[in-house]
Amino acid sequence: MQIKKLRIDPNWESRLESIGYGYHTLGGVPYWVDDYYYEIRAKDADLIYKATTELWDMCLQAVEYVIQNKLYSKFHIPAYMIHHIERSWENDEPSIYGRFDFAFDAAHNEIKMLEFNADTPTSLFETGIVQWYWKNHYFPELTDQFNSIHEQLIASWKDLQPHLKGEILHFSCAKETLEDLTNVEYLRDTAIQAGIQTKLIYIDDIGWDGRAFVDLEGEEITSIFKLYPWEWMVREDFGYNIANDINEAQWIEPSWKMLLSNKAILPVLWELFPNHPYLLASYFEKPSYLKHYVRKPILSREGANVEMFYDNQMIYDTEGEYGEEGFIYQELATLHREETGFSIIGSWVIGQESCGISFRESDMPITTDKSRFIPHIIKH
């Protein structure tokens, strides 16, 4: 797994914009990397596939364990949502997607799970579409990529369609969020290709008629995909309405995914699968022998409020608004490092299948919303 350089396409920005990718640059700094890429081996892709498949199964076992043992307080979940979570799990409410973040230690050929973005993972459009077009531009010959995301999304929506409530699947995100809207519209497009009737509504515009959620035309929302975090919704008036919805609108992702998108799941996984080769040691309380570690808020997003310690001395930290909800302590991972920066692998699960990867690169060993996206190819 190594970085390779390219002579950049002088029209790279307009090429990306022509396929609907409008946030390739943030504050004048490229977020999308067009002139270098990761070349991985087929056996690296096989290792990532195997780890993703096994970890997804372990995560489902962990959800069952949390629910059976009523561990909700460790997840900072409001009491009024517990019944909703349990019902969504018992009813096997469907999940479309999630993204594991992995550290890859090339020296030991090891993968370690950093966390699981189980509720509102982004960079799906970049992974499924933009890097595929990038590959076809620079490598039009028979070069491969670990990327069947587009096909898997359409197949998953087709599988899900018979289980949807109502005729229309609403898609939602917050207003004035170009990245979220791009990801939502991409997901909506794949649902349309699967034969599902869809409708876009911003989360800000969802109404409540006293009995059920309604859209701007007053039509009841029976099934809805939302790119908006559960932990935000349940702390708004909106959340109380979810619990009071007499018609029980179907939410995708379902509320049981709250348990997997929460970093409290990491110590639970370590308790259930101690010393598992894909896991980093993780705890609710820091043991005295743990000297190289990361302290993460259980609800932190995009690397906010993360503190990294080496020999019990803090070496990096990030700012943010999280932490009141509590922290977990995770063994410090070895990140892959090149002259361009530190990289982690995003590995996607769609419709229960491992089906694609992305690379995010940072100048420091904490991935944030400023981290760059790097495309990849597989060398055979």
Structure report:
With 380 residues, this protein is of the alpha+beta class. It has 2 domains: 2-262 and 335-379, no CATH class; 281-331, no CATH class. Helix content is 29%, strand content 27%. Strands 5, 6, 18, 19, 20 and 21 form a 6-stranded antiparallel beta sheet that branches. Strands 13-17-14-15-16 form a 5-stranded antiparallel beta sheet. A hairpin with a 4-residue loop joins strand 9 and strand 10. The radius of gyration is 21 Å and the shape is globular. It starts with a strand and ends with a strand. The model has no long low-confidence stretch (mean pLDDT 93).
Number of helices: 10
Largest sheet: 6 strands, antiparallel
Domains counted in the coordinates: how many? Answer: 2
- What proportion of the residues is helical, as a percent range? 25-40%
| Structural class by sheet pairing and helices | alpha+beta
The Cα radius of gyration reads 21 Å
Assign an overall shape: globular
- How many strand units? 22
Distance between the termini: 12 Å
**Which spans have pLDDT < 50 for at least 5 consecutive residues?**
none
β-sheet strand percentage: 25-35%
Name the average pLDDT. 93
Topology, element by element:
Blueprint: E1 2-5, H1 12-17, E2 25-26, E3 29-30, E4 36-41, H2 42-68, H3 82-90, E5 97-105, E6 110-117, H4 124-138, H5 149-160, E7 168-173, H6 178-193, E8 197-200, E9 207-208, E10 213-214, E11 223-227, H7 230-233, H8 237-244, E12 250-252, H9 257-260, H10 265-272, E13 282-283, E14 293-297, E15 307-310, E16 313-317, E17 327-331, E18 336-338, E19 341-350, E20 353-362, E21 372-374, E22 376-379
Parallel strand pairs: 4-22, 7-8, 7-11, 11-12
Antiparallel strand pairs: 1-4, 2-3, 5-6, 5-19, 9-10, 13-17, 14-15, 14-17, 15-16, 18-19, 19-20, 20-21
